[in-house]
Amino acid sequence: MLKLTDRAVTDSPIPLITRTEARMLGTALHPRTHIRLRRGIYVLREDYLRATPWEQYATRVHAFVRSHPDAVLCLESAGVIYGLPLFGHPRDIHVFDASLRTSQRYGDVCVHTSVDGREVVSEAGVLVTSLLDTVVDLARALSPGLALAVVDSAISPAQGGTVQLADAYELIVRQHNPRARSQARWVCSSADERAESPAESISRAVIEWSGFEQPELQHEFRYDGHHDRVDFLFPRSGTIGEADGWGKYQLDDPSAAAALLTEEKRREDRLRRHGHPFARWELNDAWRVKPLVEALRAAGLRQRHPSQPAMLASLRRRTRDRHA
């Protein structure tokens, strides 16, 4: 499974080239071949357009750091450096400046300030707000499902998290924004250090907001001499849920992937033989809600509470995204 350190983007995923370097190398910078990310900083157009939205954002962040090495990154921009599980292509570069009286915007750069202050640290040579401050800021700013994925990853030992949930909650209570505190309190009350992937976190939010019973995470079974651990167990019915991420099957190594898929099939058959209905889904199914709900219903689960349409709709409202 991926950990924060695995996801951390401490260097630009797409090589940056400055105007000075281009002159030295005899490289012609032309709009047909290069994209200007910041003044005097470019990337190959082909490389940038081929990258994922998240890689494009990480590249923009590093281009900004290249031109403003003394700036303190915060929110999603600091999340890039820490490897927090953010999604899509955030619209803005986020910077913290305690000396300002009010927050300001310059093009695609948001400069934030706060009466609460922030701890500033250096990660891989980049100035950022501390991991605790960054996680709490994102818990307040992101939509609830995304915020849950961030907090889960930060407190989960399996994901390499080192934040203590009690510290996050204490910091939230001390801050001055009542509306943001309300959301952050829900996120912290729902966070679970046993979550092993962002897919599990998003799925858990969808399960709750769709009215199903809350599952137990990482439940362990011992059948036929085997020790099996599952993502979700719904205790009333004994139904098992698995939020699949193809990364765990090592698909870049065909022989390893084949062995893992075979073992996974045997594991599922073993659990089914012992009376456990099975539901499987992927992260994209959780984003779309209906496929996850249908997978749970097909496994015999029924909603026990009314669904929360407004909360489910929040998964689709990506107001901080570049293309929202």
UniProtKB/TrEMBL annotation:
Region listing for Disordered, in residue ranges: 303-324
Biased composition (Basic residues): 315-324
Superkingdom per UniProt: Bacteria
Protein name, entry field: Transcriptional regulator, AbiEi antitoxin, Type IV TA system
Organism: Microbacterium suwonense
